């Protein structure tokens, strides 16, 4: 097959389902649900940082077994579209790029272009990844029918040499199915994100007829296709949960199919940003971290629920294709609601001596230590006496808890970097700053988003030097020793025991808590925040065990005293 001349049975009816957002024991169930909506194809990104969170530590096993996911798709008679990046956006931390890149590429303009350093790192990754995909192409008897070149590049840059390098490199590594690009349906984006001989598709959520016409006028090679039909949307912390009326979304789908276009539902099933993988956006200078839930108001809900939107889309697809889709699987069982007490204490004393650390004149970022997630801790000593000394932290990414001689004196937000007034006695004081880090920006020119204290710290007009920088990963944080005598000192780590008769889907509600991280039986469910809209964290059935289960909660702001296990989600709808 000539990769520059795609030929498909149309319409292509595809749905986005990201293996890294769904527990592997549930892959088959979610694929079956997509098929029951009338889809014939699954689409997934490949998240580089999911497989190589630390440089040189690659993992394609267990949850990261991409080829096993491909096998599940094939076993259910579905085709597969793969979007291997290296950048994927996807509301995923750093757009799927590994954070350790930022230690090598100090200039923030060096990513996503033909900068030799960046290309060398991508080539090394593709040497491992692409052959794993090549052996599952439809030309080799597998389900993969197309691969994307980069991702929405027309919204970012114009380096066509970079795009050609990616395309030619994938071809040289064995890809012989069609390549495609996807961009916004605007001439400036299509011109920046496409290259000659590669099938161009567009991403949009409405105005189907007009946007299909833009593709027609642009002269795409291959089927007219909406590669991301945004039938819902993602949420940021502190905002409202997004909802889209099923009938209105189904009307756009009908218009798309009537215009002769193919479609990829983004998302068919959104899943969850487990661990620290949720991304973020920048609206001007305002930082907007994405929630742990990636429900997306998709037709198949975060826990596999079949929604009204699912039924509306299924009806349109059956009506337009004349084919009745198979029946979906039964809904999953849910845990019975219960409330459990949490016991714990401060982890600040143990945090001061744990993790990886370095000393030097300036604070160091998480990325400079080669780490992808967790918490940063900074210490220095300030000389006195000084009255009303103004401490300015510079760039805080993302929330800093400032302590003087152990006492919390201020919380400084990335979006509100106000100075802190200190009263420094003659003997001086110990200054320590714990930085709670949320997701890295995943879209636009703000994507090189380092974490920790980034700007110079100043006391008045002079710089503060001589820092000890310490990093603790999520895994290390969950195992910190607790000081129960310092019960009111934050951060606070608590443990709760949950007994269940039979494992089933559940939703953990940290009602009354402020901001932190939750683990179930050692697995990081993700971040929670009291500003919503998300009020529960999804805890899928495969993470539970019959009998006793352990929940751990790390709180930075306002500890509660119990946790609820619920039988339904609360996403703020």
From TrEMBL:
- What UniProt keywords are attached to this protein's entry? Glycosidase, Hydrolase
Outline the extent of the Beta-galactosidase galactose-binding domain. Answer: 496-549
The residue ranges of the Beta-galactosidase 1-like first all-beta domain are 363-472
One Gene Ontology term of the biological-process aspect is:
carbohydrate metabolic process
Disordered: region residues:
321-369
Please name the catalytic residues of this protein.
Answer: 152 (proton donor), 228 (nucleophile)
UniProt-listed InterPro entries: B-gal_1-like, BetaGal1-like_ABD1, BetaGal_gal-bd, Galactose-bd-like_sf, GH, Gly_Hdrlase_35_cat, Glyco_hydro_35_CS, Glycoside_Hdrlase_35
Q: What is the top-level taxon of the source organism?
A: Bacteria
**Family annotation (Gene3D superfamilies):** Galactose-binding domain-like, Glycosidases
Q: Which residues form the Glycoside hydrolase 35 catalytic domain?
A: 12-318
User: Is the Hydrolase keyword given for this protein?
Assistant: yes
**A GO molecular-function descriptor:** beta-galactosidase activity
Into which family does the record put it? Belongs to the glycosyl hydrolase 35 family.
PANTHER family the UniProt entry points to: BETA-GALACTOSIDASE RELATED (PTHR23421)
* Listed name of the protein: Beta-galactosidase
């Amino acid at each position: 097959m000539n990769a520059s001349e795609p030929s498909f049975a149309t319409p292509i009816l595809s749905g986005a389902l990201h293996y890294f957002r769904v527990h592997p024991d549930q892959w088959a169930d979610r694929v079956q649900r997509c098929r029951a909506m009338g889809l014939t194809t699954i689409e997934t990104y490949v998240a580089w940082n999911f497989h190589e969170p630390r440089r040189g530590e690659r993992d394609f096993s267990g949850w990261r077994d991409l080829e096993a996911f491909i096998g599940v798709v094939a076993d259910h008679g579905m085709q597969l579209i793969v979007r291997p990046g290296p950048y994927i956006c996807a509301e995923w931390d750093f757009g799927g790029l590994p954070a350790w890149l930022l230690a090598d590429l100090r200039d923030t303009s060096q990513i996503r272009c033909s900068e030799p350093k960046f290309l060398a790192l991508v080539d090394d990754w593709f040497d491992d990844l692409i052959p794993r995909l090549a052996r599952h192409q439809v030309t080799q008897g597998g389900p993969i029918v197309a691969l994307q070149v980069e991702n929405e590049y027309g919204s970012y840059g114009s380096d066509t040499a970079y795009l050609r390098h990616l395309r030619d490199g994938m071809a040289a590594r064995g890809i012989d199915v069609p390549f495609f690009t996807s961009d916004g349906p605007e001439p400036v984006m299509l011109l920046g994100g496409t290259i000659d001989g590669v099938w161009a598709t567009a991403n949009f959520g409405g105005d189907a007829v007009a946007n299909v016409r833009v593709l027609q006028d642009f002269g795409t090679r291959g089927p007219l296709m909406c590669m991301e039909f945004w039938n819902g949307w993602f949420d940021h912390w502190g905002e409202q949960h997004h909802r889209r009326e099923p009938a209105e979304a189904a009307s756009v789908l009908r218009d798309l199919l009537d215009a002769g276009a193919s479609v990829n539902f983004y998302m068919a099933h959104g899943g969850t940003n487990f661990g620290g993988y949720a991304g973020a956006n920048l609206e001007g200078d305002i930082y907007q971290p994405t929630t742990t839930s990636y429900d997306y108001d998709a037709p198949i809900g975060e826990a596999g629920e079949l929604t009204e939107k699912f039924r509306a889309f299924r009806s349109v697809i059956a009506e337009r294709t004349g084919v009745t889709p198979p029946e979906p699987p039964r809904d999953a069982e849910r845990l019975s609601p219960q409330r459990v007490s949490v016991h714990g204490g401060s982890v600040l004393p143990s945090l001061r001596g744990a993790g990886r650390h370095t000393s030097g004149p300036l604070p160091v970022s998480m990325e400079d230590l080669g780490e992808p997630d967790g918490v940063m801790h900074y210490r220095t000593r300030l000389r006195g006496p000084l009255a009303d000394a103004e401490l300015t932290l510079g760039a805080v990414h993302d929330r800093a808890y400032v302590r003087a001689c152990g006492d919390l004196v201020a919380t400084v937000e990335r979006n509100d970097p106000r100075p802190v007034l200190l009263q420094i006695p003659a003997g001086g004081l110990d200054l320590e700053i714990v930085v709670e880090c949320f997701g890295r920006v995943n879209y636009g020119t703000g994507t090189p988003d380092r974490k920790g204290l980034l700007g110079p710290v100043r006391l008045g007009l002079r710089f503060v030097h001589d820092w000890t920088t310490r990093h603790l990963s999520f895994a290390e944080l969950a195992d910190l020793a607790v000081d129960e005598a310092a019960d009111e000192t934050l951060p606070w780590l608590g443990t709760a025991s949950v007994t269940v008769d039979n494992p089933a889907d559940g939703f953990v509600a940290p009602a009354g808590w402020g901001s932190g991280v939750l683990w179930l039986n050692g697995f990081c469910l993700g971040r929670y925040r009291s500003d919503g809209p998300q009020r529960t964290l999804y805890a899928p059935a495969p993470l539970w065990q019959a009998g006793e289960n352990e929940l751990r909660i790390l709180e930075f702001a306002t500890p509660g005293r119990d946790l609820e296990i619920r039988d339904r989600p609360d996403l703020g709808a």
